[in-house]
Amino acid sequence: MVIAGIAGFIMGNAWVWLGLATFVPLLIIDSFAKADLKQYNAKIDWLAEVPLYLQLFLMTGLYASFTHWMMLEQQSTQATPFILLLGAAFSLGWLGAVPTLPVNHELMHRRSAIGRAFATLLGTFYFDPTRDVAHVHTHHIHLGTAKDSDTCPRGYSVYKFIPFAIFGSLKDFFEMEAMRCRKTKRSLFSPTGRIMKAIYQIAVLLGTVAFFAGLSAMIIAFFGMLISRMLVEAFNYYQHYGLIRVEGKKYDSQHIWNHLTPISRTVSFEITNHNDHHMDSYAPYYKLKPKADGPQMPSLFLCFAAGLIPPIWFKYIAKPRLKDWDFNHATAEEKELARIANKKAGWPDWLAASNT
Protein backbone atom coordinates (compact mmCIF):
# COMPACT_ATOMS: atom_id res chain seq x y z
CA MET A 1 0.00 0.00 0.00
CA VAL A 2 2.72 2.49 0.94
CA ILE A 3 4.82 1.54 -2.09
CA ALA A 4 1.78 2.33 -4.26
CA GLY A 5 1.60 5.76 -2.60
CA ILE A 6 5.30 6.36 -3.24
CA ALA A 7 4.89 5.30 -6.88
CA GLY A 8 1.96 7.70 -7.21
CA PHE A 9 4.06 10.68 -6.14
CA ILE A 10 6.92 9.61 -8.39
CA MET A 11 4.59 9.43 -11.44
CA GLY A 12 2.83 12.67 -10.49
CA ASN A 13 -0.31 14.18 -12.00
CA ALA A 14 -3.50 12.28 -11.09
CA TRP A 15 -1.39 9.38 -9.81
CA VAL A 16 -0.96 11.24 -6.51
CA TRP A 17 -4.39 9.81 -5.63
CA LEU A 18 -2.99 6.27 -5.89
CA GLY A 19 -2.24 5.98 -2.17
CA LEU A 20 -5.87 6.67 -1.26
CA ALA A 21 -7.08 4.51 -4.15
CA THR A 22 -5.67 1.41 -2.45
CA PHE A 23 -8.75 1.57 -0.23
CA VAL A 24 -11.10 0.68 -3.10
CA PRO A 25 -9.96 -2.86 -4.06
CA LEU A 26 -9.47 -3.76 -0.40
CA LEU A 27 -13.03 -2.61 0.35
CA ILE A 28 -14.52 -4.58 -2.54
CA ILE A 29 -12.63 -7.81 -1.84
CA ASP A 30 -13.13 -7.74 1.92
CA SER A 31 -16.81 -6.82 1.77
CA PHE A 32 -17.65 -10.02 -0.10
CA ALA A 33 -15.21 -12.29 1.72
CA LYS A 34 -16.30 -14.80 4.33
CA ALA A 35 -14.98 -14.69 7.88
CA ASP A 36 -11.48 -16.14 8.14
CA LEU A 37 -11.21 -18.16 11.35
CA LYS A 38 -7.82 -19.73 10.69
CA GLN A 39 -4.89 -19.13 13.00
CA TYR A 40 -1.70 -18.12 11.22
CA ASN A 41 1.38 -18.95 13.24
CA ALA A 42 4.67 -17.59 11.92
CA LYS A 43 7.19 -20.29 11.11
CA ILE A 44 10.05 -17.79 11.40
CA ASP A 45 9.29 -15.19 14.06
CA TRP A 46 11.95 -12.66 13.05
CA LEU A 47 10.67 -12.66 9.45
CA ALA A 48 7.19 -11.69 10.70
CA GLU A 49 8.82 -8.76 12.51
CA VAL A 50 10.44 -7.29 9.38
CA PRO A 51 7.38 -5.48 7.95
CA LEU A 52 6.74 -3.85 11.32
CA TYR A 53 10.11 -2.12 11.42
CA LEU A 54 10.15 -1.56 7.66
CA GLN A 55 7.02 0.61 7.93
CA LEU A 56 8.94 3.54 9.44
CA PHE A 57 11.28 3.64 6.46
CA LEU A 58 8.41 3.24 3.98
CA MET A 59 6.55 6.16 5.53
CA THR A 60 9.72 8.25 5.46
CA GLY A 61 9.99 7.35 1.78
CA LEU A 62 6.36 8.34 1.23
CA TYR A 63 6.92 11.81 2.68
CA ALA A 64 10.21 12.13 0.78
CA SER A 65 8.49 11.29 -2.53
CA PHE A 66 5.69 13.74 -1.73
CA THR A 67 8.24 16.47 -0.95
CA HIS A 68 10.11 15.76 -4.19
CA TRP A 69 6.84 15.92 -6.15
CA MET A 70 6.03 19.30 -4.60
CA MET A 71 9.51 20.58 -5.47
CA LEU A 72 8.97 19.61 -9.11
CA GLU A 73 5.51 21.21 -9.12
CA GLN A 74 6.98 24.48 -7.86
CA GLN A 75 9.44 24.49 -10.74
CA SER A 76 6.57 24.36 -13.21
CA THR A 77 5.26 27.55 -14.78
CA GLN A 78 1.67 26.42 -14.12
CA ALA A 79 -0.02 26.32 -10.72
CA THR A 80 -0.72 22.84 -9.35
CA PRO A 81 -4.46 22.08 -9.63
CA PHE A 82 -6.21 22.01 -6.27
CA ILE A 83 -7.56 18.53 -7.00
CA LEU A 84 -3.99 17.19 -7.07
CA LEU A 85 -3.09 18.90 -3.81
CA LEU A 86 -6.22 17.37 -2.30
CA GLY A 87 -5.23 13.95 -3.60
CA ALA A 88 -1.77 14.31 -2.09
CA ALA A 89 -3.21 15.21 1.32
CA PHE A 90 -5.67 12.29 1.29
CA SER A 91 -3.03 9.79 0.15
CA LEU A 92 -0.74 10.91 2.95
CA GLY A 93 -3.69 10.81 5.33
CA TRP A 94 -4.92 7.34 4.42
CA LEU A 95 -1.48 5.70 4.45
CA GLY A 96 -0.54 7.56 7.62
CA ALA A 97 -3.38 5.67 9.32
CA VAL A 98 -3.52 2.36 7.46
CA PRO A 99 -1.34 0.36 7.77
CA THR A 100 0.70 2.74 9.97
CA LEU A 101 -1.62 2.61 12.99
CA PRO A 102 -1.79 -1.21 13.09
CA VAL A 103 2.02 -1.41 12.94
CA ASN A 104 2.33 1.28 15.61
CA HIS A 105 -0.20 -0.54 17.77
CA GLU A 106 1.69 -3.81 17.46
CA LEU A 107 5.01 -2.22 18.42
CA MET A 108 3.68 -0.15 21.33
CA HIS A 109 2.73 -3.39 23.05
CA ARG A 110 6.22 -4.84 22.76
CA ARG A 111 8.37 -5.21 25.84
CA SER A 112 11.49 -4.18 23.90
CA ALA A 113 12.62 -0.55 24.07
CA ILE A 114 13.39 -0.48 20.34
CA GLY A 115 9.88 -1.67 19.46
CA ARG A 116 8.30 1.06 21.58
CA ALA A 117 10.70 3.64 20.13
CA PHE A 118 9.66 2.73 16.58
CA ALA A 119 6.01 2.96 17.65
CA THR A 120 6.58 6.47 19.00
CA LEU A 121 8.25 7.54 15.75
CA LEU A 122 5.46 6.06 13.63
CA GLY A 123 2.91 8.00 15.67
CA THR A 124 4.41 11.18 14.24
CA PHE A 125 2.80 10.47 10.88
CA TYR A 126 -0.69 10.65 12.38
CA PHE A 127 -0.04 13.51 14.80
CA ASP A 128 0.10 11.38 17.94
CA PRO A 129 3.60 10.29 19.05
CA THR A 130 2.25 9.73 22.58
CA ARG A 131 -0.54 7.33 21.60
CA ASP A 132 0.89 4.47 23.61
CA VAL A 133 0.34 6.16 26.99
CA ALA A 134 -3.45 6.49 26.91
CA HIS A 135 -3.89 3.30 24.90
CA VAL A 136 -2.00 1.01 27.25
CA HIS A 137 -2.83 2.67 30.57
CA THR A 138 -6.43 3.76 29.95
CA HIS A 139 -7.99 1.86 27.08
CA HIS A 140 -6.76 -1.59 28.06
CA ILE A 141 -8.05 -1.06 31.58
CA HIS A 142 -11.33 0.82 31.09
CA LEU A 143 -12.63 -0.39 27.71
CA GLY A 144 -16.40 -0.54 27.48
CA THR A 145 -16.89 2.04 30.23
CA ALA A 146 -17.35 5.81 30.32
CA LYS A 147 -13.72 6.16 31.45
CA ASP A 148 -12.48 4.96 28.06
CA SER A 149 -12.48 7.62 25.34
CA ASP A 150 -11.81 4.91 22.70
CA THR A 151 -15.21 3.32 23.40
CA CYS A 152 -17.88 5.21 21.48
CA PRO A 153 -21.26 5.75 23.19
CA ARG A 154 -24.33 4.52 21.34
CA GLY A 155 -25.95 7.02 19.04
CA TYR A 156 -22.73 8.85 18.11
CA SER A 157 -21.81 9.14 14.45
CA VAL A 158 -18.17 8.77 13.50
CA TYR A 159 -18.07 12.54 12.88
CA LYS A 160 -19.19 13.27 16.43
CA PHE A 161 -16.90 10.67 17.92
CA ILE A 162 -13.62 11.82 16.35
CA PRO A 163 -13.26 15.13 18.29
CA PHE A 164 -14.57 13.38 21.42
CA ALA A 165 -11.87 10.71 21.11
CA ILE A 166 -9.05 13.13 20.30
CA PHE A 167 -9.86 15.26 23.35
CA GLY A 168 -10.20 12.19 25.57
CA SER A 169 -6.92 10.67 24.44
CA LEU A 170 -5.02 13.92 24.97
CA LYS A 171 -6.65 14.44 28.36
CA ASP A 172 -5.65 10.95 29.50
CA PHE A 173 -2.10 11.46 28.28
CA PHE A 174 -1.63 14.83 29.98
CA GLU A 175 -3.03 13.52 33.26
CA MET A 176 -0.69 10.53 33.26
CA GLU A 177 2.31 12.57 32.13
CA ALA A 178 1.64 15.13 34.88
CA MET A 179 1.50 12.30 37.43
CA ARG A 180 4.78 10.88 36.16
CA CYS A 181 6.44 14.28 36.30
CA ARG A 182 5.31 14.81 39.90
CA LYS A 183 6.83 11.49 40.89
CA THR A 184 10.13 12.22 39.11
CA LYS A 185 10.08 15.89 40.15
CA ARG A 186 10.47 17.11 36.57
CA SER A 187 8.69 19.84 34.67
CA LEU A 188 5.76 18.81 32.51
CA PHE A 189 7.53 20.55 29.64
CA SER A 190 10.98 19.19 30.35
CA PRO A 191 13.14 19.06 27.17
CA THR A 192 13.45 15.31 27.68
CA GLY A 193 9.78 14.71 28.56
CA ARG A 194 7.19 13.07 26.31
CA ILE A 195 5.42 16.32 25.46
CA MET A 196 8.49 18.11 24.13
CA LYS A 197 9.73 14.98 22.36
CA ALA A 198 6.39 14.73 20.55
CA ILE A 199 6.61 18.38 19.53
CA TYR A 200 10.18 17.87 18.29
CA GLN A 201 9.17 14.90 16.17
CA ILE A 202 6.26 16.69 14.52
CA ALA A 203 8.34 19.85 14.02
CA VAL A 204 11.18 17.89 12.38
CA LEU A 205 8.82 16.17 9.93
CA LEU A 206 6.92 19.30 8.94
CA GLY A 207 10.05 21.46 9.09
CA THR A 208 11.92 19.14 6.73
CA VAL A 209 9.06 19.24 4.23
CA ALA A 210 8.96 23.05 4.47
CA PHE A 211 12.75 23.38 4.10
CA PHE A 212 12.87 21.46 0.83
CA ALA A 213 9.45 22.18 -0.71
CA GLY A 214 8.17 25.34 0.95
CA LEU A 215 5.24 26.44 3.09
CA SER A 216 2.53 25.13 0.78
CA ALA A 217 3.98 21.62 0.94
CA MET A 218 4.15 21.85 4.71
CA ILE A 219 0.48 22.84 4.88
CA ILE A 220 -0.52 19.85 2.73
CA ALA A 221 1.59 17.53 4.90
CA PHE A 222 -0.03 19.05 7.99
CA PHE A 223 -3.51 18.30 6.65
CA GLY A 224 -2.39 14.81 5.63
CA MET A 225 -1.29 14.13 9.22
CA LEU A 226 -4.55 15.58 10.51
CA ILE A 227 -6.56 13.30 8.22
CA SER A 228 -4.51 10.38 9.51
CA ARG A 229 -5.35 11.29 13.10
CA MET A 230 -9.06 11.45 12.32
CA LEU A 231 -8.91 8.04 10.60
CA VAL A 232 -7.09 6.59 13.60
CA GLU A 233 -9.92 7.68 15.90
CA ALA A 234 -12.44 6.33 13.40
CA PHE A 235 -10.66 2.99 13.65
CA ASN A 236 -11.44 2.91 17.38
CA TYR A 237 -15.04 3.88 16.62
CA TYR A 238 -15.60 0.62 14.73
CA GLN A 239 -13.58 -1.57 17.09
CA HIS A 240 -15.54 -0.71 20.24
CA TYR A 241 -18.79 0.89 19.13
CA GLY A 242 -21.57 0.81 21.71
CA LEU A 243 -20.29 -2.09 23.81
CA ILE A 244 -20.89 -1.82 27.54
CA ARG A 245 -19.16 -3.13 30.64
CA VAL A 246 -19.87 -2.58 34.33
CA GLU A 247 -17.03 -0.57 35.84
CA GLY A 248 -14.84 -2.69 38.08
CA LYS A 249 -15.93 -5.97 36.47
CA LYS A 250 -13.38 -7.93 34.46
CA TYR A 251 -13.77 -7.68 30.73
CA ASP A 252 -13.94 -10.71 28.48
CA SER A 253 -14.52 -11.66 24.84
CA GLN A 254 -18.08 -10.32 24.84
CA HIS A 255 -16.83 -6.76 25.41
CA ILE A 256 -14.79 -6.56 22.19
CA TRP A 257 -15.80 -6.60 18.52
CA ASN A 258 -13.95 -8.77 16.02
CA HIS A 259 -13.61 -8.06 12.28
CA LEU A 260 -12.37 -11.41 11.00
CA THR A 261 -12.53 -10.99 7.23
CA PRO A 262 -9.19 -11.82 5.54
CA ILE A 263 -8.15 -8.39 4.24
CA SER A 264 -9.10 -6.71 7.51
CA ARG A 265 -6.94 -9.18 9.43
CA THR A 266 -3.99 -8.89 7.06
CA VAL A 267 -3.81 -5.13 6.61
CA SER A 268 -4.44 -4.50 10.31
CA PHE A 269 -1.72 -6.92 11.46
CA GLU A 270 -4.48 -8.78 13.33
CA ILE A 271 -5.79 -5.81 15.35
CA THR A 272 -9.19 -6.89 14.08
CA ASN A 273 -8.52 -10.26 15.71
CA HIS A 274 -9.44 -8.10 18.62
CA ASN A 275 -10.73 -10.43 21.31
CA ASP A 276 -7.54 -12.40 21.66
CA HIS A 277 -5.40 -9.28 21.62
CA HIS A 278 -7.19 -7.89 24.67
CA MET A 279 -6.91 -11.22 26.43
CA ASP A 280 -3.11 -11.04 26.08
CA SER A 281 -1.87 -7.67 24.86
CA TYR A 282 1.76 -8.85 24.79
CA ALA A 283 1.09 -11.66 22.32
CA PRO A 284 2.53 -10.77 18.88
CA TYR A 285 0.08 -10.47 16.02
CA TYR A 286 1.16 -13.77 14.44
CA LYS A 287 0.18 -15.75 17.54
CA LEU A 288 -3.36 -14.42 18.00
CA LYS A 289 -6.25 -16.88 17.77
CA PRO A 290 -9.54 -15.86 16.13
CA LYS A 291 -12.54 -16.28 18.40
CA ALA A 292 -15.89 -16.90 16.78
CA ASP A 293 -17.86 -16.95 20.03
CA GLY A 294 -17.55 -13.22 20.79
CA PRO A 295 -19.47 -10.38 19.10
CA GLN A 296 -18.65 -10.04 15.42
CA MET A 297 -18.62 -7.14 12.97
CA PRO A 298 -18.36 -7.34 9.17
CA SER A 299 -15.30 -6.20 7.22
CA LEU A 300 -13.58 -3.22 8.83
CA PHE A 301 -13.33 -1.63 5.38
CA LEU A 302 -17.08 -2.04 4.92
CA CYS A 303 -17.66 -0.46 8.35
CA PHE A 304 -15.47 2.49 7.35
CA ALA A 305 -17.49 3.04 4.18
CA ALA A 306 -20.88 2.61 5.91
CA GLY A 307 -19.90 4.94 8.74
CA LEU A 308 -19.41 7.80 6.29
CA ILE A 309 -23.21 7.74 5.87
CA PRO A 310 -24.49 7.45 9.49
CA PRO A 311 -28.09 6.36 8.65
CA ILE A 312 -26.70 3.36 6.75
CA TRP A 313 -24.25 2.54 9.53
CA PHE A 314 -26.93 2.69 12.25
CA LYS A 315 -29.67 0.85 10.35
CA TYR A 316 -27.72 -1.99 8.77
CA ILE A 317 -24.72 -2.55 11.03
CA ALA A 318 -24.67 -0.83 14.44
CA LYS A 319 -28.22 -1.33 15.71
CA PRO A 320 -28.73 -4.95 14.54
CA ARG A 321 -25.43 -6.06 16.05
CA LEU A 322 -25.90 -4.20 19.31
CA LYS A 323 -29.42 -5.57 19.61
CA ASP A 324 -27.98 -9.06 19.22
CA TRP A 325 -25.27 -8.21 21.78
CA ASP A 326 -27.83 -6.97 24.30
CA PHE A 327 -29.82 -10.20 24.05
CA ASN A 328 -27.05 -12.76 23.66
CA HIS A 329 -23.88 -11.41 25.26
CA ALA A 330 -24.77 -8.84 27.93
CA THR A 331 -25.05 -9.78 31.60
CA ALA A 332 -28.12 -8.76 33.59
CA GLU A 333 -26.32 -5.65 34.87
CA GLU A 334 -25.13 -4.79 31.36
CA LYS A 335 -28.65 -5.15 29.99
CA GLU A 336 -29.79 -2.40 32.37
CA LEU A 337 -26.91 -0.17 31.26
CA ALA A 338 -27.76 -0.98 27.64
CA ARG A 339 -31.36 0.15 28.15
CA ILE A 340 -30.11 3.46 29.56
CA ALA A 341 -27.66 3.85 26.66
CA ASN A 342 -30.35 3.08 24.07
CA LYS A 343 -32.70 5.62 25.63
CA LYS A 344 -29.98 8.27 25.69
CA ALA A 345 -29.21 7.56 22.03
CA GLY A 346 -32.90 7.83 21.11
CA TRP A 347 -32.99 4.18 20.06
CA PRO A 348 -35.83 1.68 20.69
CA ASP A 349 -35.91 -0.07 24.06
CA TRP A 350 -35.84 -3.53 22.50
CA LEU A 351 -34.98 -5.24 25.78
CA ALA A 352 -38.15 -3.93 27.43
CA ALA A 353 -40.21 -4.85 24.37
CA SER A 354 -39.05 -8.46 24.64
CA ASN A 355 -40.49 -8.70 28.16
CA THR A 356 -43.98 -7.49 27.25
Note the topology.
Layout: H1 2-11, H2 18-21, H3 23-32, H4 45-75, H5 82-97, H6 100-108, H7 113-122, H8 131-142, H9 158-184, H10 194-213, H11 215-240, E1 258-259, H12 262-267, H13 274-279, E2 296-297, H14 300-307, H15 310-328, H16 332-345, H17 350-353
Parallel strand pairs: 1-2
Give structural notes.
By secondary structure, this protein is mostly helical. It has one domain (2-310). Helices cover 65% and strands 1% of the residues. It has 17 helices and two strands. It has helices at residues 2-11, 18-21, 23-32, 45-75, 82-97, 100-108, 113-122, 131-142, 158-184, 194-213, 215-240, 262-267, 274-279, 300-307, 310-328, 332-345, 350-353; strands at 258-259, 296-297. A two-stranded parallel ribbon has the order 1-2. The chain is globular and about 70 Å long. The protein starts with a helix and ends with a helix. 42% of the residues are buried.
Summarize, please.
This protein is mainly α and 356 residues long.
Descriptive terms for the model:
356 residues; two-stranded parallel sheet; mainly alpha; 1% strand; 17 helices; 2 strands
The count of helical stretches stands at: 17
What proportion strand?
Answer: under 5%
Mean pLDDT: 95
User: N-to-C SSE series?
Assistant: HHHHHHHHHHHEHHEHHHH
The backbone outline, from C-alpha atoms, is globular
Strand order of the largest sheet: 1-2
Radius of gyration over C-alpha positions, nearest whole angstrom:
21 Å
Could you tell me the number of beta strands? 2
Low-pLDDT regions: none
